[in-house]
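Quick question: what would this complex look like in 3D?
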Amino acid sequence: MFESFSIVLFLEAAIRLAVPLAVVALGESITERSGVLNIGIEGSIIAGALCGALAAMEWSSILLGMVFGAIGGGLVAMVFAIFVLGLNSDQIITGTATTLAGLGFTGVIYQARFGTTGSVITLPVLKSLEVPFLRDIPILGPIFFQQSITVYFVYFLVPALWYFLFKTSWGLELRSVGEDPAVAEEAGIRVLFVRFLAILFGGLSAGLAGAHLALDSGTFIENMSGGRGFIAIAVVVLGRWNPVPIVGAAMFFGAASALQFLLQSSGSNLPFPFFLMLPYVLTLIALSGWFGRTKAPGSLALPWPPKSG
Amino acid sequence: MNRASEGGMILIKVVNKFRIVVSALLLCIASCGDRNDESTSSESQSSDFRVALLTSGPVSDAGWHGSAYEGIKLIEQTLDAKISHQQTNTPAEFDEVLRAYASSNYKLIFAHGFEYQDAAIRVGEQFPEVTIIVSSGGRFSDNVIPLIFELEEGSYMAGVVASRMTKTETIGMVGGVAIPPAEATFTGFEAGALSVNPDVEVLVSWIGSWDDVAMAKEAATTLIRRGADVLIHNTDAASFGVFQAVREARALGEEVWAMGMNRNQNDVAPEVILGSAIIRIPEAFLQLAILWTEGKMPSGEAYYAGGQSGAADYVVNPGLAGKYQPELMAEIDSVRLGIINGLISVPRIGFLERVGGSF
C-alpha cells in the first residue's frame, strides 16, 4: 500500500508518538507493581510539562527543563502518596482528584504567570541526536537512531527496569509488596516505604514525559497532556506490567496514531478513527486474559493496611 | 462483637469515607478555583447589564477562545457591563453553567462554540428572557442565536495565497475535530486554492483534539513529509504544534510556510506565518451586545459576521510581506472585493436548524 519512504515516515512518527507514552507507562508499571494504581499520573505529566517549560525558559536549557519537569511530576505524585499511603485514602478517588487538581493548578500558575489570555512561550526545542554509524543502517538507522534524547533514555530504561524487576532482590521486594503486602511485611519489608518509592518513580517518569511534550513542541499549553496518563494506564495493562511488552504496547498506540495521520494525508477513505480504536480494543482483550496467564499485581489498588470490616 | 464496638466500627467507616470525600473535594476545589476568574474582579461595578462567556478550552490559546475573552473584555470596557467567564471541562457542565448564569441575572450569554448548541436550546427554553449567543451554532430558537462567522471567506483568501505560494503544488490543513464550522473553513480554503490552480493537491489531517500540541505537530510533520509546503490549521492552542513543525522543517532547509486561523496569529510565530484567516470575534461580540442594549437583538434567526461587515478577512503578516509578489497583493484585494460584492461565491456548509417556536 505504501512505498518504503512512507514506511520510514510511519515508523519515525510512531516512535515519536510512542515515546512519551512509553516513559509514562514504564513509570506507572513500577508504581502498579507495588500494588498502587496511580490514575493521577495525568496530573504529574501536566505538572512536568509546566515545570519543564518554566525551567527551560528560565535557564535556556533543555537538560534543566527535563530535570525540573521530572521533579514537578514527582512532587505531584508525592501529594498522591501522602493521601494514599499516609491517610490510606481510596486510590481511585485520590488519583482522579490528583489529575483534576494537576490540570487546574497548572492552568492557574500558567495564567498567573503569563496572563489570562496567555502569551505564546517559546522554549529551546529538543533536537534529534544522531548516533554515529548506527544511524547509517538503511531504513532502521533513521528510524531508531535519529531521534530525541528521550528515545535513547527509553532504550536504556527498558533493560534497566527489566533487570531491576526480575533479577535484583529490590525488584523481588517490590513485586512481593504488590502481590501480597501482608506476606511482604512478615518478611520484614517496609510496605509503605516501597510503595512510596514506587509512586515517586512513577511521578518522576511522568514528569519527564511531560517535559518532553513541552520541549518537543517548544511551548506549554494548558491541558497539553491530552489524556496520555490514562492511555499509559491502558499501555501498562496491554504490556502485562512487563517493561519489554510495555514498550511494544506503547509503540502500538503510537503506530495507530501515526497510521491514521498517514492515511488521512494520503486521502484514503478508510475511516481513520478505526485505527485509533484498535489499541483500546486490544487492551480490553488483554484485560480479559486472552494473552497468557500474566495477571495484574495481586494487591493492585487495594488499601494497606487493609481497612477493617 | 458487642453493640458498642459494632457502632464504633461503623463510625470509623463513616469517618474514613468522609475523609476520602473531603480530600477529593479539596483537591477538586483547588482545581476549579480558577474557572470563575472574572466574576469577582468585576464585582465592584454598579452596572446591572451582565454578560457571561463560556468556553470549552483555556482562553490562553491566542486564538479562538482568547478572542472571545477579549470580546467580553471589550463589552465590559465599552458598555460598562459586568462580565464573567467560565471554562467548562465536560459536556455535563454545559447545562449547569448556562443555567447558573441565566438564573443569576446574566441576560446575555455567549456560549463560544458549536458544542454548546443543544445545551443552549434546553436552557433557552427554561429562561425565555435570557439571550444565548452560540458561536458557530447550528440550531436556533427565539432566544438562542447562532453567531455565524463566515470564516470560510477569510479561508478562501488564504487558499488563494497558499496556492500562489506553493512550489510543490501541495498544501495542507490540520484540523481539530471535524465539526461543520471547521470543515467549512477547510472547504473554503480548498476552493480558494483550486480557483487559482486546479492542479494543487490539498491534504487534510484531523487530530481529534483542539489543544493537543504534540498531535498537531505530528500531523503537520506528516503533511510536510508528504510534500505540503503551505500549512493552514483550524485548531485552538494545538496550532502552536503546527507552527513548531513548520519551524523545524525550515531549520532543516525546507521552504515551508504556515498560516494562522481564527485570530490574527501573525505575531505568534512571525517568522513562519505568511498571514492569517481571521474573524474579528471581539468586534462581533460587541456589535451583538450593542444590539442587545438597544433592544434590536435578532430573534429566531442567525447573526452573520462575514466579509461585508469586515468581520472575516485575511491579514498579511507585515514581517513577511516581502514574500508576496505585488500581483498577489493586488489579487488578495480583488478577491476580498469579489467576496463582498458576491462576484465570488465561497462554498458554504449549511448547518442551521430551527428548534421550537413559531415562524
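Answer marked as accepted. Residues 20-225 of chain A form one domain.
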